[in-house]
Amino acid sequence: MSSSGRTMKLRALLGFAMVLASIGVVSSSGSVSATSAGPIALLGVSSIQIAIQKGMSIQKLPSNLAPQLSGEAKSMFWGGACIIGEPGSSSTAKACPFGDLSATSTVVVYGDSFSVEWVPAFNALGIKYHFKVLLFSRNGCPFADVKINDWIGSVDSGCLPFRQHVVEAINAMRPLPSLVVLSEETDLSSPKGGVLSMVQWTNGIKKTILQLDQATFPIDVIFGEPEASSPPSACLARFSSSITKCSSRSSAALRNYNYPQIASAVSSVHAGLVNTSSLFCFDEICPDVISGTLVHSDNWHIDQTFAAMATQGLASLIGCTVNQFNKLTATSRLLLQSLLPGANSAGAKGACATSVTANHI
How confident is the model at residue 199 (pLDDT cuts 50, 70, 90)? Predict the structure, then answer.
């Protein structure tokens, strides 16, 4: 996110106790109405949703998490030894390898920091299912073909060239990638303090997807991550004896990113929809602690421990997209089916369909 966008949000968060009340977070009693639908019956998804449901009445911050709060802003996976592009750096499309480095099958992950944060999960999946993961990422530079401010508040002149170079590099890969996964933050701030319209943003999404060679490999788009109502280092520290006050309603946590419009744009150009909101929210509640794990590192990014915990759930949601494509190569179909065994069963298809529209996206 650009510094202007973050500054606006941070200003709004200065009085976050009032904001929490205004957006309708869970009451300190932790009481919520039971959902009639129940958890989504997908491996790794249902377990997280059950954990959310069980945790709705837990008021006290787990003692092991208290020491982590002061350093939580640094807890997202930022690339480790891998060099991630920054504003002002080269626009060369340099890939960072993860997963099974000796594998012949490749999954490409491309986007801004919203793609980098999922690398702990992709790395584990690559090792387990024997595929290489190639990450193309530039912080503050979304995959959507739009011109925006970078994360330090100026125009990153290397962003658009980087995007074009990544598209060219992916299309030229041999052997072809088995899957390309895109992820980004929706940031409508534009150069010189302007604001992009959602039409401009969704057109940019469609433009990038259409530039990729969909005839030879499938493209999935990850979306649906909720925004925390305030940094966990602030809210959980303040309400350590009543942590449900830091949970958000899904309607508030998801609204800033315009996910329904994004989903519509992605499906219109025949890319796969991976709605991850079911990994964060259940029965309209999106907590800051799930199964004794901190969910967010800041308002916008996820803790790398949570990313690892959500690995199987992410696998199932990506595997669900096998039924969203009319045509797949044998290699791509095998990879997606390995992520979701029984993907062709009626039960799996129903659960997958539910996951795509979870939380009213």
Answer: very high
